[in-house]
Amino acid sequence: MRRWIIQGLLFVIGFTAVERFCHKQTHGFRLQKIQADLPHNSDWETLLPGDHEIRIIQSILSQPYYFLACGGESYAFVSDDGKYVLKFFKLHHMRPKNLSDAFLPTFFREKVQKQRIKKLSTLFSSCLLAYERFREKTGLVYLHLNQTDNLHLDCKLFDAIGAKHSLNFDQIPFALQERASMAYPTLSALTEARELDAAKKRLGSLVDLIVARCAVGLSDHDARKRNFGFVGEKAVEIDIGSFTIDEMLKTPLETKKVLMHETLKLRRYIKKRHPELIDFLDKKLNSYLSEKT
Predict the structure, then answer these.
(1) Which pTM was predicted?
(2) How far apart (Å, rounded) are the C-alpha atoms in residues 64 and 162?
(3) Quick check: 22 pLDDT over 80?
(4) pLDDT-based confidence at 99, cuts 50/70/90?
(5) What is the CA radius of gyration of the chain?
(6) First-to-last CA distance in the chain?
(7) What are the DSSP E strand ranges found in the chain?
(8) Which residues is 155 bridged to in the sheet?
(9) What is the pLDDT of residue 75?
(10) Are 143 and 131 in contact (CB under 8 A)?
(11) For 248, which DSSP code?
């Protein structure tokens, strides 16, 4: 009996170790995590692209996509040509139904289900705001939240260990964005290469981006440096999951408050790492902050 217990424990330990190893190697990605039987929701509707736009989207989506990164809300895959990023939402945390719910009391199960739906709705609402109000500044090419029947494409995905997966684009929520280079590393690389004019253009574009977001009445509740990048010389917001509407931000005074708050860390970074750019940044900021309210 004792030997069986020891063998059982060793089996459990071994199985757990293998499972955690596989999880780490794949960054936790499985098709089941990005799939959910979600009902059609009119609040998640986007304008149907025209025939020409659909053909462009189909052309972009028809290439293979390779695992790039795992974020808090999505798995990201980069296109074969390196120009686009495909984001699949993590639905296993948010979908309304889960087998484990069967063991919960009814009232608690209903509460958990409502929380999941609310979390999913908050995320999708933010993505819709980005798509409808801030598409160019987020590099969004296409947003697909409800099931459709107009893409007629199977997605070819390769995960972090090179395993191939296939799924129907019409049946799954996703966001397609232009691929951006991360803001801070790009600024550092350009400055170290003494390409100061190129660095200044991008730095100025970052400031313009914050002002442009306020101008359309959007608040970003996660405006951290890792969420900003560049597509060419254009600054974009990479994360599209933290937007809400705040029409007050359109006023000059509120815009200035946001600009000052969100550029504090940027200014400290530039002053410490790239002091040759600090005068340019201060002049750019003052061009907005000195305007009469």
Answers:
(1) 0.85
(2) 12
(3) no
(4) low
(5) 22
(6) 81
(7) 65-70, 74-79, 84-89, 140-144, 154-158, 164-168, 174-178, 181-182, 218-220, 228-231, 234-237, 243-245
(8) 167
(9) 97
(10) yes
(11) G
